[in-house]
Request: fold
Amino acid sequence: MSQEGYDKLVAQLHQLEAIERPKASAAIAEAADKGDLSENSEYDAAKEAQMHLENKITELKITISQAKIVDVSRLSTDEVQIMSKVKLTNLGTNKTVSYTIVSESEANLKENKISIHTPIAQGILNKKVGDEVEIQVPRGILKLRIDDITIE
Reply:
């Protein structure tokens, strides 16, 4: 994972623990003040929201504890690897697209960041500029050519 991605996860965890957790506790206390808990749907909803929040906090802590930060200065542009920005041409449509190969937690299609676990990333890993690949995706087979590999 990139240092930037790691920092975003740490900031998100801090937000959840320092701000969202107290809000959830306050919502539970407010709902509990409204009387009989056995028939209090507001209380049940607040408890469920707190459970989801705690699960998300736990997942983030696990992801952060298992994260390995990639030193991009040591990466090569000789072949596609994690943190590579790859310019591809779809040989079927002749359209070009660029993707950055990132960890699962950093994937964001709006930013053209795809997980290393996607079929496209798996199909181009360890390939070089000029290589043509055929990748099985849900819509069928994509024929792609690698036009450029950079590291940001």
About this structure: DSSP finds three helices and five strands in the chain. The helical segments are 3-32, 41-66, 119-124. Residues 3-32 form the longest helix (30 residues).
